[in-house]
Design a protein that fits this description.
The complex is a heterodimer of chains A (391) and B (233). Chain A is α+β, with helices and mostly antiparallel strands and 391 residues long. The longest helix of chain A is centred in the first third of the chain and has 40 residues. In chain B, the strands form 2 sheets. In chain B, strands 6-7-8-3-9-10 form a 6-stranded mixed β-sheet, with helices on both faces. Chain B has a 4-stranded antiparallel β-sheet with strand order 2-1-4-5, covered by helices on one side. Classes of the chains: A alpha+beta (391), B alpha/beta (233). At the A-B interface, helix 1, helix 8 and helix 11 of A face helix 2 and helix 3 of B.
């Protein structure tokens, strides 16, 4: 009990210098939590949006389908296995058929992918109910990015040309039945959503699909010949990897901050030992062991981290809560430029784990930079310390 | 140690290396101190007074020979055991007081008792007693920076004797004090020596101190030149 009591006394007796250090360290504390909270928010927002609009509870895909290789799209289709069709019929899955196409918006030529989906499906949160419009033209749903890039608006008509399963080219007029907002660029850019039954007719692919999206929380089903299953975690792996990469990038920023704070504490400890070496000698003369002297100085530094956490809480909690509610506007006001499914504002998420991990990191760093100079004391002879000699 | 002997040195030698050369601070010092002595080590600067006090206080170890303090051979003590010896049995008084600046008078005097792990109630009583012995019972909340030199040294004495040690080692305790304060300090220490039986050993070249001690040991070039009993004041 003696050492903590002495450490508190010494710290509080340190005056302005001590409070300055506490404030500097608290800045690191808050900045690390803020930066990491942004990354967690990014991860959560991108993951949830992707799950809602694209991944669902996992995908069955025809084995020849490679989403990163558009040349595989033409042949990436196959009959939906009966068990999967049963799930679709129960509303627990949604089939998607992909057919490469060419569109001619306002006299221009552009590649696109026709994506057939049941208008009544509830698995993905896309507004597919708008695909029920009855007319000769194909009702088409496009994302806001697509609409902007090709200059289309609701009610516009564009020519769509595709090749069916037998290799025959055909073309029809499509009417833009709706434009939807989504954070997930991969269900938007270059894609035209049309009714599944219509697309199957157009492409001569009755009962076929490219992807079957399972409902969220669905257990992995059995394997089917010609189909591969990718679970939700697998589908989100790219996002997680991207966020991890961004996190490492942002880590440089807070490692720098923490280093500055650690340097300040280290400097204070060195100065403290230099100025207090006579005091150290006195402590030893009074019977304090070297171990306890080291413990005292290390604890003084560690208590500084504790106080920094309290100081940081005073201004950090309101500040971080403000960002959590109001969000952090993405640079340039364009979430897409970040390369992930995020909106115009990013909402940081501060988990207990994040705060605990940051606290451990700051406490550990502070303890180490306090211990290192204190360790030098162990080599100081009491008589030298009393004379005020340098270590 | 038998026959009331508190300290015994035998052929004590301390040599300090100084570059390629070495300096002999103590040479074959043979001394014995009994409990309750009020003795002074005198001699010019560099005669080995402080070195001898440091060794007797287990702050330093001899190069050769033996220094037995309270039954413990200083030369064989580990750091931990030496710290325990100082903690329980030895009080130090320094020329420059060496009070802990951020602590109050009360906390400075309390410090050795905290290290001893004394219970709070006992501690409070002991600190109050020690401060009343040195006449500073009314300055408990003051910081060292708010005290005069004489008052600081009285706090240092209170800190040295609060745990009622068998031995108090005082290195030039009056060097930074005026005559009146020196007199007051020495009176205080004499009273404590008489009332509590604490052994006081001074390193000094201050005539005022020498007039108070009952035994004067003169060191010259690290050797005991004279060891004489005095009448004291």
């Amino acid at each position: 009990m003696t050492i903590p009591k002495l450490a508190v006394r010494n710290l509080l007796g340190g005056g302005t210098k001590f409070w300055l250090n506490a404030v500097v360290l608290s800045l690191s504390f808050v900045a690390i939590i803020w930066a990491q909270g942004l990354m967690e928010g990014l991860d959560e927002e991108a993951s949830l949006a992707t799950i809602d609009d694209e991944a669902g509870g996992g995908h069955y895909r025809v084995e020849s389908y490679d989403p990163l290789d558009p040349f595989t799209y033409q042949d990436a289709h196959g009959p939906v296995p009966a068990p999967l069709q049963a799930r679709i019929d129960e509303g627990k899955a949604a089939a998607i058929l992909l057919v490469p196409a060419t569109i001619y918006p306002q006299g221009r030529v552009q590649s696109a992918v026709l994506k057939g989906i049941e208008p009544g499906q509830k698995i993905l949160s896309l507004p597919t109910s708008r695909l029920t419009a009855a007319s000769d033209e194909i009702p088409a749903l496009i994302g806001a990015r697509m609409a902007e890039s090709v200059g289309l608006k609701e009610g516009d008509i564009l020519t769509v040309r595709w090749r069916d399963a037998k290799g025959a080219f055909d073309a029809l007029e499509a009417v833009i039945a709706g434009i939807f907002e989504t954070k997930v660029a991969t269900v938007d850019a270059g894609q035209i959503w049309v009714p599944l039954a219509r697309l199957r007719d157009m492409a001569a692919m009755p009962g076929e699909a490219t992807i079957v999206v399972l409902e969220q929380g669905a257990a992995a089903a059995e394997s089917f010949s010609g189909w591969a299953f990718r679970d939700q975690a697998d589908l989100l792996a790219d996002i997680r990897a991207f966020v991890r990469m961004k996190t490492i990038g942002s880590s440089i920023f807070y490692v720098l901050l923490l280093s500055l704070a650690a340097l300040a504490i280290f400097n204070t400890q060195i100065l403290s030992i230099w100025r207090r070496r006579k005091e150290i000698g006195t402590l030893m003369a009074m019977g304090m062991t070297r171990g306890r002297v080291i413990g005292l100085f290390t604890l003084e530094g560690s208590l500084l981290a504790f106080l920094a956490a309290l100081v940081g809480a005073v201004y950090g909690i309101p500040l971080l809560a403000y960002f959590a509610v109001k969000g952090f506007a993405m640079p340039g006001g364009q979430g897409d430029s970040f390369g992930l499914a995020v909106g115009q504002s990013l909402y940081p998420v501060y988990s207990l784990g994040l705060v605990a991990a940051t606290a451990v990191l700051v406490f550990a760093t502070t303890a180490v930079v306090s211990y290192l100079p204190a360790r030098k004391i162990a080599k100081l002879k009491p008589t030298d310390a009393l004379k005020g000699k340098r270590t | 140690m038998d026959n009331g002997i508190l300290i015994r040195t035998k052929d004590l030698v301390k040599v300090y290396p100084l570059g390629q050369q070495s300096i002999t601070a103590l040479a074959d010092v043979n001394l014995t101190f009994r409990r309750g002595e009020f003795a002074g080590l005198v001699g010019p600067s560099g005669s080995g007074k402080t070195t001898l006090l440091n060794i007797l206080g287990s702050l330093d170890a001899p190069t050769r020979g033996s220094a037995e303090v309270l039954g413990e051979k200083v030369e064989t003590l580990s750091h931990r055991k030496a710290a325990a010896l100082r903690n329980r049995h030895i009080g130090f008084i320094f020329q420059t007081f060496n009070l802990l600046p951020v602590y109050t008078v009360y906390e400075n005097v309390e410090f050795p008792l905290l290290l001893l792990g004394m219970p709070p109630a006992e501690r409070r009583r002991a600190v109050a007693d020690a401060l009343s012995w040195v006449g500073l019972a009314d300055r408990t909340k003051s910081k060292p920076s708010q005290l005069s030199g004489g008052q600081c040294q009285r706090v240092a004495i209170a800190r040295a004797v609060v745990k009622k040690p068998e031995l108090v080692l005082a290195d030039e305790p009056t060097a930074n004090l005026d005559a009146e304060n020196s007199h007051h300090i020495l009176d205080t220490m004499e009273t404590l020596n008489r009332d509590m039986g604490t052994t006081f050993l001074f390193a000094t070249h201050d005539e005022k101190v020498i007039r108070h001690v009952r035994r004067k040991i003169t060191l010259i070039d690290g050797r005991v030149a004279k060891d004489e009993a005095l009448a004291g004041s």
